[in-house]
Write a structure and sequence with these properties.
By secondary structure, the chain is of the alpha/beta class. The protein has one domain: STAS domain (Transcription Regulator spoIIAA), CATH 3.30.750.24. Helix content is 39%, strand content 27%. It contains 4 helices and 4 strands. Strands 1-2-3-4 form a 4-stranded parallel β-sheet.
């Protein structure tokens, strides 16, 4: 099964901003109800993320860690990576080159 079709992978695309973040939160919350051992957010098609998008990812990660699961990000684009580095979130999140690598970890 390709990683993008894996039930524990949330593929995102485009710009994750104040208008899109609530939908991302809804998708993640639906996944969290099942308490999967691992959730991977695939950002390989995301060109922009703002603080509201980061907040959604941080909150989801905290929920997953609280029940003992693993939360990972995959495929950060060159346009998005500096946002994580400036906020030092590259040291907080597990970040993988792609969703397959994250699932294999």
């Amino acid at each position: 099964m390709p990683a993008t079709e894996h039930p524990n992978v949330l593929p995102l695309q485009g710009e994750i901003d104040l208008h899109v973040s609530p939908r991302v939160a809804g998708s993640l919350n639906a996944m969290l109800k099942e308490k999967p051992k691992q959730i991977v957010v695939d950002l390989s098609h995301v060109s922009y993320i703002d603080s509201s998008g980061l907040a959604v990812l941080i909150e989801a990660m905290q929920h997953v860690v609280a029940y003992g699961g693993k939360f990972a990000l995959a495929g950060l684009q060159e346009s998005v990576r500096p946002v994580f580095e400036i906020a030092r979130l590259d040291q907080v999140f597990q970040i993988f080159p792609d969703a397959d690598a994250a699932l294999a970890s």
